[in-house]
Design brief:
- The chain is of the alpha/beta class.
- The chain folds into two domains: 6-167 and 263-342, Rossmann fold (3-Layer(aba) Sandwich); 170-260, Rna Polymerase Sigma Factor, Chain: A.
- 38% of the residues lie in helices and 15% in strands.
- The strands form two sheets. The chain has an eight-stranded mixed β-sheet with strand order 1-4-6-5-7-8-9-10, sandwiched between helices. It has a two-stranded antiparallel sheet with strand order 2-3.
- Helix 2 (111-125) crosses helix 3 (138-149), helix 4 (168-182) packs antiparallel against helix 5 (196-210) and helix 4 (168-182) runs antiparallel to helix 8 (250-261).
- The longest helix is centred in the C-terminal third of the chain and has 16 residues, at 232-247.
- The two termini are 31 Å apart.
- The mean pLDDT is 96.
């Protein structure tokens, strides 16, 4: 069960990379544990597309009592990203007090805008240094952007199943999902449940990029050879679509998938990714997943080649992109090896 987050309201509008201003910005966040006297035990988590700030709920096995990251040793912080529907300002929030929600009119957010909100929260919490910044997928994109912007702020950077620039392949997957949502006429009515059927189809599409051929073969194959309809794989897609509709909304999904598309560390910095990545100062662990078709290992290998001293590790997993959430035993082992190797823990 997800616990209730803390809420922080910015004292000023947030300037966006697009040139627009986002007024009345609220950030939802969770903290666990206590900041030590030296201020050296902060673990900051950047979450992925549809997650929330309660990292103990969605990353069990890596975060929590007895886990590698725990509140007994660390001060763990996770902020819900802007544009989301878990407490931070997003499309279902009012534009200004007394007005209706933004819906489709919610302004374009970039990964850099999400990082700007993290930075506002960091300053509000009085955190002067972050021991480890960690994120997977879209969370890894945020972590990389932040590490580029403020290289001296972080001692360690851990990124999983992510990239330096969102690929044409990833953008195409996101657009296919948005097309499914736009094809749902209710999306255009601007109501809280608008686009629900489209969102259900979008999630079913997305799942094909999150998992792998091997994973479906192992978990969704029919027990007999005489099945003609009502296949397990079909029911699984429907189930996953229903699960997301129960906790998310189409306007947020559209907004955040567009945010992911904007990720490009080289934009406005000369365009070349290598020199930008070379500016990261944190000791870095980059983790890829052998079966990831959405963020294939070549994207993580590029990161490791250009980040000074970075360690690259690849998990052998049949779970595809979702392996960064599931393979917590492997991730823990890689973290232990990394910190022994760099002698910082």
């Amino acid at each position: 069960m997800t616990s209730q987050p803390h809420l922080y309201t910015l004292p000023h509008p947030l300037p966006l990379e697009s040139g627009a201003l986002l007024p009345h910005v609220q950030i939802a966040y969770h903290t666990y544990g206590r900041l030590n006297a030296e201020g050296t035990n902060v673990i900051w988590v950047c979450h992925a597309l549809t997650a929330n700030s309660d990292v103990l709920a969605w990353w069990p096995g890596l975060f929590g009592p007895g886990c590698y990251y725990n509140a007994e040793e660390h001060f763990i912080v996770c902020a819900n990203i802007l544009g989301s529907c878990y407490g931070s300002t997003g499309p279902l929030n009012a534009r200004t007090p007394g007005e209706g929600p933004w819906y489709q009119a919610f302004p374009l957010l970039t990964i850099r805008d999400l990082v700007a909100a993290h930075e506002e929260l960091r300053q509000h919490l009085g955190i002067r240094h972050i021991h480890t910044l960690i994120g997977g997928s879209m969370g890894g994109q945020q972590a990389l952007e932040w590490a580029v912007q403020q290289p001296s702020l972080f001692s360690n950077l851990v990124v999983l199943a992510t990239n330096a620039r969102h690929s044409p392949w990833g953008i195409a997957f996101n657009e296919a999902q948005r097309l499914a949502i736009f094809a749902d006429a209710t999306y255009h009515t601007a109501s809280p449940t608008g686009g629900a059927a489209g969102l259900r189809a979008a999630r079913a599409t997305a799942l094909l990029s999150y998992r792998s051929y091997q994973a479906y073969g192992q978990t969704q194959a029919e027990p007999t050879d005489d099945q003609l309809t009502d296949f397990r794989a079909s029911a699984y897609q429907q189930y996953q679509g229903d699960k997301l509709v129960a906790r998310f909304n189409a306007y947020t999904y559209v907004a955040l998938s567009r945010t992911m598309d904007t990720h490009h560390l080289g934009r406005g910095r000369g365009g070349e990714l290598g020199p930008v990545l070379a500016g990261i100062q944190a000791r870095t662990l980059v983790i890829g997943i052998s079966s990831d078709v959405l963020f294939p290992p070549a994207e993580q290998q590029l990161l490791a080649r250009h980040i000074p001293g970075a360690v690259y590790a690849e998990m052998d997993s049949g779970f595809g992109h979702d392996g960064f959430l599931i393979e917590t035993a492997q991730i823990t082992q890689l973290l232990e090896q990394f910190h022994v190797r760099t002698a910082v823990y």
